[in-house]
DNA sequence: CAAGCGTGGCG
DNA sequence: TCGCCAAGCTT
């Protein structure tokens, strides 16, 4: 009899310690899984929870969202951040209806072709929603595997093909067990094997961890350059969008001008929002969230005779 | 491939 | 207080 594998140890720990999150409940639809994965891109779990519930209550299937407007999606998205994701999700719904008859596709290639769905999200849906055997590699999994297997304190900033290969090698053969293991790796990285303050005393693989064995060299400083926010276009975009989100219908340019004094930067930020499909001009003097009302001015009534 | 893209809570 | 961060994607 062989010793439990890495995946078996982490999976057992997961079954006993996993957080009770709604998108992990049995019978959750692939659409719900997709929504959760997109919302969780760079946004903490605690903030996603209420938005996830509201979103699915309103649009329980892709076809429902496809009939809404990007503006509605942006509003229900609320303040999760990176609101482009709300528009991408709306585009996803439209694409799913048009290309796949309203059903979230189950093939990796088709998932990857959806707007805003990349390597991680496509694999997460294929594995968690459809039970397929694919390595699901996010920043947490990269860190866990990098530490436990390679003995390095931190992984690189982006997922590379080698990361998928290294993770795939750890997965059980059975697809359902593999999907469970992937969820377990993510959970371990999220709550135990964290970037800054790993809780090794609570780790199910402490005794076989290469990083632990090699003396646990301290994690390096921030791998990414510090992301400034104050004074950036991003902040200005956030301010502009805040006004448009709270408004109903077109917003006079004057109200947008009030959010930021630098004309050049404000214009650049607004243009960026338009190019990203979040905002559209209504006329020469007002803007609105995309689709927030009739797409073109009402047809003028014919001049009354006489 | 590095940079751009929001937001709010926490050490 | 304020810098740092949180299940990526796109260009």
Automatic annotation (TrEMBL):
<dbReference type="Pfam" id="PF00730">
    <property type="entry name" value="HhH-GPD"/>
</dbReference>
<dbReference type="InterPro" id="IPR004035">
    <property type="entry name" value="Endouclease-III_FeS-bd_BS"/>
</dbReference>
<comment type="similarity">
    <text>Belongs to the Nth/MutY family.</text>
</comment>
<keyword id="KW-0004">4Fe-4S</keyword>
<dbReference type="Pfam" id="PF00633">
    <property type="entry name" value="HHH"/>
</dbReference>
<dbReference type="InterPro" id="IPR004036">
    <property type="entry name" value="Endonuclease-III-like_CS2"/>
</dbReference>
<dbReference type="Pfam" id="PF10576">
    <property type="entry name" value="EndIII_4Fe-2S"/>
</dbReference>
<protein>
    <recommendedName>
        <fullName>Adenine DNA glycosylase</fullName>
        <ecNumber>3.2.2.31</ecNumber>
    </recommendedName>
</protein>
<dbReference type="InterPro" id="IPR003651">
    <property type="entry name" value="Endonuclease3_FeS-loop_motif"/>
</dbReference>
<dbReference type="InterPro" id="IPR023170">
    <property type="entry name" value="HhH_base_excis_C"/>
</dbReference>
<keyword id="KW-0378">Hydrolase</keyword>
<dbReference type="InterPro" id="IPR003265">
    <property type="entry name" value="HhH-GPD_domain"/>
</dbReference>
<dbReference type="InterPro" id="IPR011257">
    <property type="entry name" value="DNA_glycosylase"/>
</dbReference>
<keyword id="KW-0234">DNA repair</keyword>
<keyword id="KW-0479">Metal-binding</keyword>
<keyword id="KW-0408">Iron</keyword>
<feature type="domain" description="HhH-GPD">
    <location>
        <begin position="39"/>
        <end position="191"/>
    </location>
</feature>
<keyword id="KW-0411">Iron-sulfur</keyword>
<keyword id="KW-0326">Glycosidase</keyword>
<dbReference type="InterPro" id="IPR000445">
    <property type="entry name" value="HhH_motif"/>
</dbReference>
<keyword id="KW-0227">DNA damage</keyword>
<dbReference type="InterPro" id="IPR044298">
    <property type="entry name" value="MIG/MutY"/>
</dbReference>
């Amino acid at each position: 009899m062989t010793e439990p594998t890495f995946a078996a140890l982490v999976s057992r720990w997961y079954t006993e310690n996993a957080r009770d999150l709604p998108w992990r409940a049995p019978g959750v639809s692939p659409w719900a899984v997709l929504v959760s994965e997109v919302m969780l891109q760079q946004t903490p779990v605690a903030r996603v929870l209420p938005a996830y519930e509201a979103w699915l209550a309103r649009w329980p299937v892709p076809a429902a969202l496809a009939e809404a407007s990007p503006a509605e999606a942006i509003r229900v998205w609320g303040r999760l951040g990176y609101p482009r994701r709300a528009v991408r999700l709306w585009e996803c719904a439209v694409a799913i209806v048009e290309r796949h008859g309203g059903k979230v596709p189950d093939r990796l290639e088709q998932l990857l072709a959806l707007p805003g769905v990349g390597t991680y999200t496509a694999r997460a849906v294929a594995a968690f929603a459809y039970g397929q055997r694919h390595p699901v590699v996010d920043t947490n999994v990269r860190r866990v595997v990098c530490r436990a297997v390679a003995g390095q304190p931190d992984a690189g900033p982006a997922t590379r093909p080698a990361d998928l290969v290294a993770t795939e090698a750890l997965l059980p053969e059975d697809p359902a067990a593999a999907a469970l293991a992937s969820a377990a790796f993510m959970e371990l990285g999220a709550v135990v094997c964290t970037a800054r303050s790993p809780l090794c005393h609570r780790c199910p693989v402490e005794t076989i961890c290469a990083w632990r064995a090699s003396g646990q060299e301290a994690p390096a400083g921030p791998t990414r350059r510090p992301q400034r926010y104050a004074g950036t276009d991003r902040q200005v975009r956030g301010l502009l969008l805040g006004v448009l989100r709270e408004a109903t219908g077109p917003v006079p340019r004057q109200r947008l001008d009030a959010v930021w004094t630098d004309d050049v930067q404000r214009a650049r930020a607004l243009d960026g929002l338009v190019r990203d499909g979040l905002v559209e001009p209504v006329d020469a003097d007002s803007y609105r969230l995309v689709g927030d009302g009739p797409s073109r001015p009402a047809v003028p009534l014919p001049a009354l005779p006489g």
